[in-house]
Write a structure and sequence with these properties.
Radius of gyration: 23 Å
Mean pLDDT: 89
Strand content: 5-15%
Low-confidence stretches: 1-44
Shape: globular
Structural class: alpha/beta
Helix content: 40-55%
Largest sheet: 10 strands, mixed
């Protein structure tokens, strides 16, 4: 009898081993010695560098040579990081604040200058941020973005001193102008109202600096790494630690390459924004649902948002920018789907922003929304940022001619279309 049982057990073990052999796990990355085991992550779950952002000061009379010098550095940095096995999606240049170098220009002079600058960005294949405009120059920034293919900018509505309500009004006016004066109203993809966003943030459009320049920072695209950390598991036991373990080896390797670039070039390294930016089907929404085991918007969503941000903050590298969870509705296929289903609202996203990253990002809105309503939404974001002293932004996309229940028709390659929600 015992012999029969032993034979049966041996047969089962053999069959199980064969079955498991058909589904071999992916190879794993080596664990960092700085991170407690276990930290095995599928090799496929490797982040990309969304962008290397250079921060420079330009003179409108000599900007082309200054930009070319920055591009030479950026392309060398891109090659050095890619040599270490990490794909770099693009390079970016952020200038000093918009107001600093448009003061004294006539409107026509500014429009001509930035038309030429935009053409240079298209030709040389870099993204360009003009830095923040103050309330008095916001209308000019709106006109420049409307005529541009590449240029991005912002209005800072809050800082350590509190909320600038004149800037809140100006930012909402920019949004209405871009709604009315850009194809499919998608000019607002290149504009944001920012609140307490720090200098040297590499993610756009809130990126800015007011220093001497010759500095750089990196932005990651790592939603796939977060998803890989929760593959096959819905456990809520210390999910932040899983994220830290999953991202640390790659973040440290990327930083090591960046620091070598800094040493060789003389440019100052300002850090990595670890925010796990999604890109359509590379979905942070999908990663969150893997973690939760159910649909976004249900109980546990705020816990997931807090855990991801906590895990990112614990990664032992020099951090820049937001370094928290991003929930950009129109840049993530699953988020766009859930938005169209009504799984969460602006109020819910604001609540999640109290424990995570960027605030209200790429939110589609009905075209008949009043400017005063946009001001109220921006004011809510600014109030939350000031209360908790954290970086937030409002990138809102009201769509001309579209009502609640209708689908957007964006043709930007980075945007996903979805159904517009009714405003409460």
């Amino acid at each position: 009898m015992f012999r029969l049982i032993a034979l049966l057990l041996a047969f089962c073990l053999s069959a199980c081993a064969q079955d498991l052999n058909l589904q071999k796990p992916s190879p794993v990355e080596p664990c960092s010695t700085d991170v407690p085991a276990p930290c095995a992550v599928p090799a496929a779950a490797k982040p990309k560098v969304r962008a290397i952002t250079a921060f420079i000061r330009i003179d409108t009379r000599n900007y082309q040579s200054q930009v070319q010098s920055a591009l030479q550095f950026l392309r060398g940095a891109k090659a050095a990081i890619e040599k270490q096995g990490y794909q770099v999606e693009g390079v970016r240049i952020t200038t000093q604040p918009f107001t600093d170098y448009t003061r004294g220009m006539s409107t026509d002079e500014a429009l001509r200058f930035f038309k030429d600058y935009d053409a240079l960005a298209v030709k040389e294949n870099f993204d360009a941020n003009l830095g923040p405009a103050d309330a008095g120059h916001a209308d000019l920034l709106a006109r420049i973005i409307a005529q541009s293919k590449i240029l991005e900018g912002s209005v800072q509505v809050a800082n350590a001193n509190g909320i600038d309500w004149e800037a809140v009004h100006a930012a909402a006016a920019v949004m209405k102008y871009l709604e009315d004066n850009t194809a499919h109203s998608q000019g607002n993809f290149n504009f944001t109202a920012s609140a307490e966003v720090p200098e040297y943030t590499p993610f756009y459009p809130a990126s800015w600096h007011n220093g001497p320049g010759k500095k750089f920072a990196l932005a990651l695209e790592s939603a796939n790494v977060i998803a890989g950390a929760f593959a096959g598991s819905h456990s809520m036991t210390d999910p932040g630690a899983l994220i830290t373990q999953a991202l640390t080896p790659d973040a440290q390797a990327i930083e090591k390459a960046a620091m070598a670039v800094a040493q060789q070039s003389g440019w100052e390294y300002r850090g990595i924004d670890l925010s796990p930016a999604p890109l359509k089907d590379i979905s942070i929404g999908g990663a969150m649902e893997k973690m939760m085991g159910h649909r976004l918007g249900e109980s546990g969503t705020m816990t997931a948002a807090a855990a991801i941000t906590r895990g990112l903050k614990a990664v032992p590298v020099k951090q820049a920018g937001y370094s928290g969870l991003m929930i950009p509705i129109l840049e993530d296929s699953l988020l766009a789907q859930r938005w169209g289903e009504g799984a969460f609202s602006i109020d819910a996203l604001l609540a999640y922003s109290s424990v995570c990253g960027t605030g209200l990002d790429t939110i589609p809105l009905p075209g008949d929304i009043a400017q005063s309503r946009l001001e109220a939404i921006i004011g809510d974001v600014a109030s939350l940022a000031v209360k908790w002293h954290k970086p937030l932004a409002a990138r809102l996309l009201p769509v001309k001619g579209k009502a609640a229940g209708e689908r957007t028709e964006f043709d930007d390659p980075f945007l996903v279309n979805t159904t517009i929600q009714k405003m409460r």
